[in-house]
Structure formats: C-alpha cells, structure tokens
Amino acid sequence: MPMPLASAAEARRLAAVRRYAALDTASGAAFDRVAALAARIFHAPFATVTIVGDDTVRVIAAHGPPPRRAIIESLCAAAVRHAGPFVVDDVLLDPRAAGDPAVRGEPGIRFYAAAVITTADGEALGSVNVMDTRPRQAGEEELACLRDLAALVMDELEVRLTTHRTVEVERELRAGAERLARTLQRTLLPPALPRVPGLCAAAAYHPVSADEVGGDFYDLFPLDGDRWAFFLGDVCGKGADAAALTSLVRYTLRAAAVYDADPHAVLANLDAVLQQEHAGGEAPVPYCTAVFGVLQPDGDGFGVTLATGGHPPALAVRADGTVEPIHPAGGQLIGILRNPHFAQVSARLNAGDALLLYTDGLTEARTPTGSMLDEDGLTAYLAAAGPTSADALLTTVHDLITALGTGVSDDTAVLALSVPPATRTPSSGSLGAA
Question: Residue ranges of the GAF domain (predicted)?
C-alpha cells in the first residue's frame, strides 16, 4: 500500500533532520548570535532556534530569561509545515497554543513569529522563533530579517555537515591507510623468527607513524649445515619507495647469502645490486645501512662473524652484566659510494651472553634534556637494566622507547639473540648449554 502523500512528505523532512542530527548543534556561538539578533530586530524579550523532530522540538539556541519556559512547541511544530514566515499576532486566541503553560502562565507569551530553516532541497528542519509578551503585528522588514537569519542558520548547518563528512572521510581514509601500511609492513618483515638450536631469538618493530611504511628490516634464516645468518638494517626514505627498496634489500641479502655467506661478500653483493639499480636513472640514489652476521655453534656458545655498512654497532650484553660494542673498524653506507669499504669482525657469544642489533631510530631519539640518546646512552641504559636474554632485551628496549615518548622521531627495529646460561646437571654436576 503506497504511503499517503502527507506522510511521505513528512518522512522526507524527518530524513533531512536526521542528516544533521549527528552535528554538535547544541553548542556554538553562531546560533546564539542568531537568537540574540532576532530578539533585537523585533525588540522582543525572547528568541529561539529550534529543530523539529518527529515528536520533539530541540532548542539549539535561546535568548531571553527564562529561555526554556518561552518555548511553545505546538507553534514551532506548526511553523515547519507552513510556507513562508509564520506569524501569530495573539497567541492567546490561537487554539493550538492558548493552553500552553508559557502562554497561560509565566512568561505569558502573546506574540509569535517564525522563519523556517530550509535545506537546499526544500525540507524544513526547524525555525528561528521570536516571542513577545504583548499581542502585536510583525513588519515586513522584521520578517525579511527573520528569513535571513534562518538562512544563516542553514548555512552554518551546511558548513558543519560538510566538515563532519570531510572528517569522516578523512578518518576512513586514514584508517584504510593504516591498515594498508600495517599489511605492507608485515610483508617486509618475517612473520616469525625460526627456532635456532641452542639460541633464543626475538625481534620487534616500533613504528613512529601508523599510516606510513618505514624502511627498517631484519631477518634470521638457516644456511648450510648448522650455520645461521641474520641481518638488520634501514633503507633511506619512507612510504612506497622505501617499501620497494626494503623488499629488494631483503631479497638480495638472502640470495647473496646462499651464494656466498661470507658477511663482507654479502654486503658487497648488495652494494652492487643497489648501484646497478641507480645506474643511469634520475631518481634519488637508493642506499641503506645494514649489519649482516653468521652464527656458528661452538661448544656451549656461538661464534659470530659480523660485517657492517654504515650501521650502528651491535651490542653484546655479557652474562656478568657488562655491555660492549661489537663494531668492525669502518664500514660505509651501502649503495651510494664508489668502491665502499665494508668492515668485518669476529666475536663469540658464550653461555648467558646476548647480542642486540638495532636501527638508528633508537640512538637518535632525544632524551628529556634534548640531547640524543646515542650509543653511549643506550649502552649505559642496558648496563643498568642488566638484561641477559633476547626477550629481556626486547622488553628493556620497549620500556626505553616508551620512556622517551615524543623524543623518538623515527622507526626502530630491534633484533636480539641470546645463548641460554649454562646449568649444572644434578646427576653429573657437569656444565652444559641449556
């Protein structure tokens, strides 16, 4: 059964009212000024701006004491269904409002005039209302001004609706960008680190921005025999270009390690690939910093061979709590210099020792005093905390980043490796790797 014409029209009007229902129309100096101007133009004590719903009249601005008592809801509801200005010279003679408490009692309203707040498609949302305590007539100039004030209210509502929609769209776009960034970032990092016999490994990525893809990367993977390779680094830039470069770097490091796992040779191979990537192009030179290492089981610990290209030193946290840098002499940026030098060094992780690799987002963070944390500050922090396991190192770094707060301005990737402490076997009393 089709809806009656009157009901269909009211349904359209109420739909228009609902479009603006989410707006913060209950506050705003603009509406208050409209009510004050309406009262001043009519030399009347009361004025309101109202929105008329299906069974309620909502006051979004009012002028004159006491404003709440000066609302004649029946006339406000009638005004939105009236073409043009709506005027009642003597409210006491109008059966729709004569019994209203605001008419029979205080403040004793006798005159009412309203101009409808109308949308661009002709739907009435509410009205700007003027009320007086004496019967009177409204002049043409007064009514014209009242119509202009109603139009100003509509303009303000449209601005607020546009702003609201823009904010919603921006929020949805940002949420989509954050989801895309998180998804893309996950594809650039291993979903989980493999289990290495006799070793604990843990990694974390601390992004500064949720909607921007960073260029920090890490990985841990098996080589031939019982050897394992690991790397951590940072490519230049942010966003899609950095993501593409990160993918290229990770793939190259893995492929190069299969061909020749010598850390120095791996970084040299990566440099050659990046140099070739830039050859003859006008795009900015793609470069990165990285540290690449190979682990070899050795008794109750691991031998470690590290090569670095422009990257901060790895930190060995020894079982006795001391912290020492594992830093080859030299080591230049990868992909940007002609004939770069990559440095290599060997070290050992004994039972109870741990190794921390990190990107410079951590050491370049600012402390509360404004100075950079730098490598010395990180070393001192780790020594004071005394972590000796991969998981404990990650927790310590997380706490440090949290404490630095806004002082951290760049993403940070962290990779921690630790050898469990030696334990005494009750039956034999001998020492062995846990």
Answer: 26-171
